[in-house]
Amino acid sequence: MKKLLSYLWPITKRYSSEINGTLEVTLINGKKVLDTENANYSYGSLQKILEFALREVELSSVENILLLGMGGGSVIKSLREKFNYQKHLVAIEIDPEIIKIAKDEFGIIESENQHIIQDDAIHYVKNASDIFQLIIIDLFIDSNVAPIIFGAEFCNNLSRILDNNGCIIFNIGINLESDSDKSQAIISHFGKDFDFQKHSKVNGSNTLLIGKKNIYF
Predict the structure, then answer these.
(1) Residue 86: how many CB atoms within 10 A of its CB?
(2) Would the N or C end of the chain have less CB density within 10 A of its end CB?
(3) Confidence bin at 173 (pLDDT 50/70/90)
């Protein structure tokens, strides 16, 4: 009944998070979305943005994925259902309330090849020993990205745990007045072993960097 009613008017449930403030799960036109005060976190425009990026990656050759910033798990849904990616995935999410919402509202569960870890992404990549063939960085608090994400240490740690011919998808911001400084800083931190393509105003809003690490022996 709620699903039918949502075609007439949205039905919203609100959750309180110490990290993200008020979180809203809204059933609209038969589908749930997860939003903060100023941004879509999952299953709305963000899902379309990351699906654009995933089309630029040859997923058939990817054996394991690291997702930094899980949100409600829309990119996981896209990978599993739309792109039929059934291999190993590790999702890192700092907010325990987000993890609970992803599980209870959107059915994102752990399995043999899908692990959810509550941790700060910066801490995780600094200490990680596993190597990944695709890393997706989607680290927002509301509509903001912490400046440390654009720094040399974080980028160097990402490079260290990325496979020699792996790919990286970096969601660097929403409606940036000038994305050239941030994107150039990130590209310079990764260095000459990476080839990057910048995509501005994806779905009318976000700037993405999609890169490939090219090291051959």
Answers:
(1) 10
(2) C
(3) confident
pLDDT of the residue at 176: 62
**Residue 151 is part of a domain; what is its CATH number?**
3.40.50.150
* Residues sharing a CB contact under 8 Å with residue 95, sequence separation 6 or more, in sequence order: 17, 19, 20
Bigger pLDDT: 188 vs 216: 188
User: Pairing between strand 132-137 and 64-68?
Assistant: parallel
Query: In terms of residue numbers, what domain contains 144?
Result: 52-213
The answer to whether 32 touches 106, Cβ cutoff 8 Å, is yes
Distance in angstroms (rounded) separating the CA atoms of residues 24 and 102: 12
Q: How many Å apart are CA 207 and CA 7, to the nearest integer?
A: 32
Distance CA 64, CA 70 (A): 15
DSSP of 168-196, one letter per residue?
Answer: EEEEEEES-S--HHHHHHHHHHH-TTEEE
Evaluate whether residue 28 is within a structural domain: no
The mean pLDDT value of the chain amounts to: 88
